[in-house]
Amino acid sequence: MTETRVGLVGCGFMGRMHSEVYSALDGVTLVRAVDKDSAKAEEIAKAHGAEGGTSFEDLLADASVDVIDICLPTDLHADCTIRALEAGKHVVCEKPMALTLEESDAMIAAAETSGKRLMIAHCIRFWPEYVELERIVKSGELGGLLSLNLTRYGAFPAWSSDNWLADEARAGGGALDMHVHDSDYALYLMGREPDKMVSHGTVEARGVSQIFTTMVFGPTVVHAEGGWNLPGSAPFKMAFRAIFERGAVLFDGGPLTVYPESGDPQVPEMTKMAAAAGGNISDLGGYYHELRYFYDRLKADEPLDKITPESSQASLALALAEIAQVKENVGA
């Protein structure tokens, strides 16, 4: 496979982010952009020299397309993923994987039957600061990890098409749409399901909009909290605090800083992104790294062992269990 040809379905915020990444990837070409809003599809298509349109069926029927990138509302993930796999396409699908475990089972089965690749785009596994934390944990250079606090807050994303994110039946609420980032990272970093978990939060008409979860992994306690119920004037916040036996690692939007037990604080150099001719990808973070990983592995015919469909399903299962516990605790 000398050139990988991609069809993008869903040209909203995340679709635009993915399209910018394609401008920076060698050997990967965005050839079709599809959205029910023809203006959105044409805008991305024009910027990338691709073909715009509104028909997902036409995209599926295009034999020249190798990969379909799905950036649609969550309630459409399973159906569109399965149809794309059955059409003989490899699939990248935005997180969360689906709304239910039954849907995720069907997605995995379709990938196995088709023999095509399926990757759920959990970008935090690839975000430079979180990758560095993973390296420090695995290296043992600060000793064992005692505790980890993961934080993710923002205002409600009122920009979604048809306001679909406000519909719990389509998006799953803030706990599934946004907090799942940290549920996924906790499982990925620790390499297994927690021994114990307790979740509390706030339930609104849009679903669980704010959540506080504490998980126990042997000697390590992980606390993850977040939501999308900040006022619109408040900034988005993504942060973590990791306490080790011999130091700490802090990230709060600025440079990740390592505080060893002895010696001066250190600011490690983050993973550099590959330079792209004519493309500024400095703000694409994990979006760039996750897609580069997928296409590099696809071209090399190597397994997607960093982010398997089964691991994404496990993250969905954890998030759904958290949501169920929150609702039970508030009597919803």
Note down, in words, how this protein is organized.
The termini are far apart. Residues about 270-280 have low confidence and may be disordered. The chain is globular, with a radius of gyration of 20 Å. It contains 11 helices and 13 strands. It has 2 domains: about 5-120, Rossmann fold; about 125-285 and about 315-330, Dihydrodipicolinate Reductase, domain 2, CATH 3.30.360.10. The strands form 2 sheets. The protein has a 7-stranded mixed β-sheet. It is α/β, with parallel strands linked by helices and about 325 residues long. It is about 35% helix and about 25% strand. α4 (about 75-85) runs parallel beside α5 (about 100-115) and α5 (about 100-115) runs antiparallel to α11 (about 310-330).
Set out the fold topology.
Layout (H helix, E strand, L loop, with lengths): L3 E6 L3 H12 L3 E7 L3 H11 L2 E3 L2 H6 L5 E4 L6 H10 L3 E5 L6 H14 L3 E4 L6 H12 L5 E11 L12 H4 L1 H5 L2 H11 L5 E9 L2 E11 L2 E11 L6 E8 L2 E5 L5 E4 L24 H16 L8 H22 L2
Parallel strand pairs: 1-2, 1-4, 2-3, 4-5, 5-6, 7-10
Antiparallel strand pairs: 7-11, 8-9, 9-10, 11-12, 12-13
Q: Globular, elongated, flat, extended or rod-shaped: what is the shape? A: globular
CATH architecture of the largest domain: 2-Layer Sandwich
Instruction: Specify the CATH class of the largest domain.
Output: Alpha Beta
Strand portion: 25-35%
Overall structural domain count? 2
Q: What count of helical segments does DSSP give? A: 11
- Tell me about the biggest sheet? 7 strands, mixed
CATH topology of the largest domain: Dihydrodipicolinate Reductase, domain 2
* Count of DSSP strands: 13
Distance between the termini: 51 Å
Strand-and-helix sequence, N→C? EHEHEHEHEHEHEHHHEEEEEEHH
Radius of gyration: 20 Å
